Amino acid sequence: MRHSIRDDKIKDDYSAPLTIEGKQLAHDLVGYFVDKNIKAIYSSPYQRALQTIEPTATTLGIEINLNAALRERQTNDQIDWQNHLEKLWQNFYFKTAGEESLATVQQRMKTAFYQIIDESSGEIIITSHGTALSLLFHYLTSGYFNFIDWQKMEMPDVYIGLFDENNQCISLTKEAY
Asked: Structural domain tally of the chain?
């Protein structure tokens, strides 16, 4: 699940909370998850990710497992974000000073995902960030989830992945909640 709407007035990426609307949308997600037989919840430690999953975790009575590897991509200000993002998606190893490459983030997310899968059984929720999740989805779908799909992600957004016994992704679908 991608976090809900971030308060952009707060510049510190780690502590930026949800907006009032973002908090309401997070509460609205509870009804979607209440009958999904969730066994575990994992989240980025960033405030907006936690605020997105907390209402669901509280309602389900499930502790949130914080995982720093699910964090947002380290980046810096760019004059032309759209052009920069297109360059990043064309070359996952491209980066400017002070930011993580998409290849680095994808590897971090793959490692975290398989560790979570190995220690969990049953249905789980992973709450993270748009870029981080899109790179995981890109890997899991052998590249079918791409830059255009990333651009279409909303806040919040819920994706359901189905996996075989070898943890290979059979399907990844965007859910209407």
From this structure: 1
